[in-house]
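Review form for a predicted model. The reviewer records the input and the model, then writes brief findings.
Reviewer: anonymous (R2)
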Amino acid sequence: MTQPSLRRLDLGVDVAQLTADLVDIYSVSGEERAIADAVEEALRGLAHLEVVRDGDALIARTSLGRSERVILAGHLDTVPLPTAAGARATVPGRWDGEVLFGRGTTDMKGGVAVQLALAATLTDPVRDVTYVFYDHEEVEASLSGLGRLAERYPEWLSADFAVLLEPTAGTVEGGCNGTARFNVTTTGKAAHSARAWRGENAIHKAAEVLVRLREHQPATVPVDGLDYRESLNAVLISGGTAGNVIPDRTVIEVNYRFAPDKSPDEAEEYVRGVLEGFEIERTDAAAGARPGLQHPAAASFVAAVGAEPKPKYGWTDVARFSELGIPAVNFGPGDALLAHSDDEHVYAGEVRECLRVLTTWLSR
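Model under review:
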């Protein structure tokens, strides 16, 4: 899609309308230039902030000499637009009363709107604030704009605490589970299916793998006061070459979502124990993040939100902050279950409430 000319953002409008203005800027992963341009133009007009841009990612920060520094982070990209006939999630967005429909309303332009509104209005926060807007979150981890910023601008990402404004329906979700993928391979001997006894069926051998996964009871693991539910599942399977050939190889892809008390290596050891006797290759892994709610800044933030924190079962970029030694939580407007859906939407009141909570916390 051809990128449009520069869209100017008015950071003084109602934050729900600012969300709609951001939704109207097409920003599917890999095509974030237009929204990055608009965000940069808006941030550079704020005299109290230092701003740096790297590709289609930006960092802006106050430098007031406060005793604490917090990061507020959000990604600018979205997943592709829906293709189903009659799908309601589109760009530009559409209002239905106080509900905004459109790609990115939940994941996560409502959160980005809150970041921008705070950047414009909080000229004298009680904590120094670093605002991070990054590209390529919805694709493979190696392309992540946040990872790139951490490598190139480590001093800009130094902080005591971070809030990732992913959708949580306005509840603090601490840390996140880790994730790992494995290929489990069974081998046999190819033969003509009319003479099956001369072969060895690799697909049949895979049945034992599936039985073990079906009977596996996922653990719920307490970590720093939050209970993280794990899961271990077959997610893809492939095998066979033709309708008249006994298959000699089958590969089952297994995904393990593991509690943040484990490292990726410990997760692999666990999976090998469950599937002992089978050929296993780890193809991908990302560590989780402990919630870090005992940190004073985290505790004060949870108190400001006023709701019992919950664990984050999916993986998010709080894990990247954890790797940097920064305690981090997820907190943002919108229902995460609507993310990437064909009727993705957010309530205006949720975006306004998120802004209110963060404004209060950063002003006292």
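Findings: DSSP finds nine helices and 19 strands in the chain.
Further findings: The first helix runs from residue 15 to 23.
Recommendation: see findings above.
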